[in-house]
Amino acid sequence: MHIDFKTSGGFANLRLQCSVDTATLLPNDAEELDSLVAQSNVLGLNQAELDAVPGLFPDVMTYELTVQVGDRTQQLRMTDISMPASVRPLVQRLRSLAIQQTRRS
């Protein structure tokens, strides 16, 4: 599984990004991401449903998420307001990974 993750916005316009390939992670880390993706149901979400939630609020974080599993790819864009609760743990973990990658570079 491959995941691309980007954030922007918020009060300080914080921008983070990371790319993660579970084949290159330690087994426990890969299992954690696999589990978070499954629990979040990101592969079953519909962008139109996320767009239906108003997102024109100042200082709202925006998240771009691309998940590729085999030959299936799902691209989503959501905000703190439109993000389903099931996706929050995945986004929190990816945000943590993005911070780690930023510190290394």
Structure write-up:
With 105 residues, the protein is of the alpha+beta class. The protein has one domain. It is built from three helices and four strands. The chain has helices at residues 27-40, 47-51, 88-104, and strands at 2-9, 16-21, 61-69, 72-79. Strands 2-1-3-4 form a four-stranded antiparallel beta sheet. The longest helix has 17 residues, at 88-104. It starts with a strand and ends with a helix. The relative contact order is 0.24.
Brief synopsis:
The chain has 105 residues and is α+β, with helices and mostly antiparallel strands. It contains 3 helices and 4 strands.
Name its key features.
single chain; 105 residues; alpha+beta; 4-stranded antiparallel β-sheet; 30% strand
Low-confidence stretches: none
Give the structural class: alpha+beta
Helical content (DSSP H or I, runs of 4+): 25-40%
Neighbour order of strands in the largest sheet: 2-1-3-4
Order of helices and strands: EEHHEEH
Q: Globular, elongated, flat, extended or rod-shaped: what is the shape?
A: globular
**Average pLDDT reading:** 90
